[in-house]
What does this fold into?
Amino acid sequence: MLVYQVERRVFDEEYISSRLLHKKDRTPKTVGQRVADQFRCSSGRAKSVVLSLLPILSWLPSYPVKEYLLGDVVSGLSTGVMQLPQGLAYALLAAVPPVYGLYSSFYPVLLYTFFGTSRHISIGTFAVISLMIGGVAVREAPDSMFPLNGTNVTGFDVDARDARRVQVAVALTTLVGLIQLFLGVLRFGFVAIYLTEPLVRGFTTAAAVHVCVSQLKYFFGVKTKRFSGPLSVVYSLIAVFKDITSTNITTLIVGLVCVVFLYGVKEINERFKKKLPIPIPGEIIVVIVSTGVSYGMSLSENYQVDIVGNIPAGLQPPTVPDFSILPNLVADAVAIAVVGFSMGISLAKIFALKYGYSVDGNQELIALGLCNFVSSFFQTFAITCSMSRSLVQESTGGKTQIAGLLSSLLVLLVIVAIGFVFRPLPQTVLAAIIMVNLLGMFKQVRDIPALWRTSKIELTIWVVAFVASVLLGLDFGLLVAIGFALLTVIYRTQSPRSVILGQISDTGLYCDADEYEEAAECSGIKIFHSNSSIYFANCDLYVNSLKQKTGVDPTRLLAERKSQRKHAKTRSGDKKDSSQSPAQKKSTVAKLDMELGVAHEVLDEAEKQVDVLSNGQVAEAQAESDSEEARFLQPLCSVHSIILDFTPVNFMDSVGAKAIKAVIKEYAAIDVRVVLAGCSRTLLSDLRTLQFFNEPVTPDIVFPTIHDAVLHCKQRGGARLSSPAVQ
It folds into this structure.
């Protein structure tokens, strides 16, 4: 058994700061020196900057070809065959023609290979981000803006509408990239911490509902407009069910067959993932087979099945986005930038932890910003990492972003050479691919019972994020969810758990006296513990809880003391003309004591007068007066010391410091000493800055541990502890 024993004096802050600890002598740097240090250049500093901006240079020169290349090739091809159908499908979510999904699956993936720090995530199109872009595109370019001119046919110009929506999506992507770059350069990689896991999971589950509802019209083959904004899910469902009688049966059958097949393949891949060398590429199989069937049976001409249509061969020349519409897109761009980064960094950290390397949140922001900003000049929409593709890239043996590079080259091959092959592809197949890929997000509903058992507050965050995002739309829903999550933080600081601590016998340990049998309160000492910092929002609650838990309220006791003095003066005046016997006087005093129900303190000298009786019996009157004084020599309160455990206090503002000083003075008025224990050096430095330590508050009331404070208080209250009143 390991035992330690330390014998030392009781430390207080005055002794520690004057004799035990001495700060190192440091000459503070001037502003000019600090600026010069930041801009000083050396070969080592230059190398560090280049490696941080281009992480590929840190691992590519030492790339183990024999160990990694085969796995990266297999992983790249497997991920690439998923990129193709998902790129086409998620373009529908973004409300742009399918070929722009292929562009978004090439340029950003290529750029991330050079600038990203994660070796395993798969960058490209993602359902949630695509849906958020689609909502903005539909809002800025609704069908009603593009009526057909010169005809009596009701409808709209599809080509003009799509061209405008592409402009909106591209401009939005440019702004998203700029925001991410700006945050990355300013080292704002921590912004993702405000999107807690329950919030993200509730939000993505709601996004899955939006995505699924938006694909119903393609799945059933009905013609309905696309809605955006609050209650868009409700309006979309109403529109689909109103036209459900016009369902295209052929479209529905093709979609159902694809869903069943894809779900079966996904289950097989999941169940036999340890036995299969690579996952079965169900999506690319469905795309190839359905394209062949559609072409052979002429589904578009004979059965009016909506197809992908024209896919232009080759890459688009770079063009400058339409910056005139940027002011309308700022709020949406911020939401997409933060959500996209949070998705990417959370998955990157999971893989980094699993494989023992580190990812830089700030560099990830810069990488995503460059991917979005540069790629937007080549007609792409905003991207982030995809969980399903990342899992495939990792499970098929991918070791580095060489796998991502190969998958982008496969997409390039399709764009340049064989894109036209997918023209007959039915849109209902893309809808089926999207719906099946949402299964993982819908399974997040299982979080609800788990959170119910572990944390009701986190469950509330999950539910609020889900409900708000479903009903208000993803943009407003995200704002509501973040606001609510921050309110829960305030709520937790506003309602901390406060307890009175007791000592475990023969130890220096102190625990909740109400919860543990072994924890016994120290006689005459109350140790108050509240697990929160003290600042303007909760200092009043802290003080009220202190008075309630300790049972010592200075205001009430001072009022009772005033009442005692009043009774004492009345009694002293009555005795001048009183002829009561000593027994009657004792009875009266005892009755008064019982009525007050509290202990008493020594009266002022003006009240301690010797009553001279009219018969001249001065000695007898003096004896009776001394007897009554003895009754009032009891302390006003049995508690002589209160220890405030500041171990959980991380910070204190000026309002909190004033509140604590007021408490110390208030208790001193009733002869109860308040001391502090467990203050960190940072907190003590803050208190000195706030000028906390001046009369009557001095550093000698601060102790490094609760046990130091208890020993000090016991020594101070020894005389009172031995008195009959306290015992």
